[in-house]
Amino acid sequence: MQQGSKALLVTTESGKLIQLDLASRRFDILFQHPDRESVFGVTHKEDQIFLSGATFLASGRLSENRLQDVRIRNPFPSPLRGQARKLMRWLWTELGAHSRVIPYDKPGLHQMNLYGSSLYVAATTWNEVWVADFDLNVQRRIPLQPYILDYFHLNNVFCDGRHYYVCLNRYAGRPGHGGYAKFDLEWNEIERRALGWESHAFSVIEDHLFHLCCFSWRSQAQTFHPRQAGLMMDDNLVFQYDPNEYFCKDFSMDGEHVVIVGGTTTKREERSSAAGVVFILNRHFELLSKEIISGLGGFNGCRFMGCDYSKGYSISELDRAALLSETVENQESLPA
After folding, report:
1. Domains of the chain, with CATH numbers?
2. How many CB atoms lie within 10 A of CB 307?
3. pLDDT score recorded for residue 144
4. From the centroid of its chain, how far is CA 17?
5. Could you give the count of Cα atoms lying within 13 Å of 126 in the half-sphere of its Cβ?
6. How far apart are CA 277 and CA 183, in angstroms?
7. What is the pLDDT at residue 108?
8. DSSP characters for 220-263?
9. pTM for the structure as a whole
10. Tell me: the pLDDT tens digits for 32-60?
């Protein structure tokens, strides 16, 4: 990257991690999954990059426009196959009993964020949040309590330093209404709210609720659906894209730009051959540029290197807050 350039990490359906220079629009391929499995989540601590995909967690060191010393882990039991898998799917779909039976399928890991010394990953298919350490060991699995027929299609976990928020693509268990669940820092649920539709990439920035609203074939029969797609701030759609052309999954925001990434609209099984799309906006949500990049598959996730408000508190901010809390507690415990 040239001095003064702005680097965006982007994950792809074809199993790649790229680094895109917003100034020149040039990119480098940093990583290719050996089985070309789709990569979704990406975060980093300094030059250490962490990735998540449907069945794996990975990490590596960014050096000379490549990911070095890559480790890949598959931290979940083997999924069921054949008739047993069909039975589990029936129980889940018809009885809302997915959380009460053994998982039948891959966890479908989606977006990943880093808070403090832990990685927080949306285990989409299992309706869970996974908390992992930097060695990619899953330390905790947090289920979102379902109701009958609920399948939330979790997309990401966001922390503002006071609360955790989990993006619910399907707030009511069916395609259509989106929303979020809000937790305290001990993961006690304190609120669950419908917001927008087909929610992706939920964030709280400057006291505003941001998320992507989408429109997919699954919602064709929903009469209430506005059949629009784009970035929503609170209850207002501040940027729209054509859902007949594109399907977007993540966004990043810093002090100057908002970037939305996705791919050309196609069938799910063909997304690895779709073209990627990057919408570059200013902070007034005005379109500055639209970049179409072929040959990489659709884009799944993104993150600015450095400041990225859409991903929550930085490591240093959380560590500073924890240090301040420990200092106050120690002072209070000192003898008079």
Report:
1. 7-77+106-333 (2.120.10.30)
2. 12
3. 84
4. 14
5. 24
6. 33
7. 87
8. TT-TT----EEEEETTEEEEEE-TTTEEEEEEEE-SSEEEEEEE
9. 0.85
10. 999 999 999 999 999 999 999 988 999 99
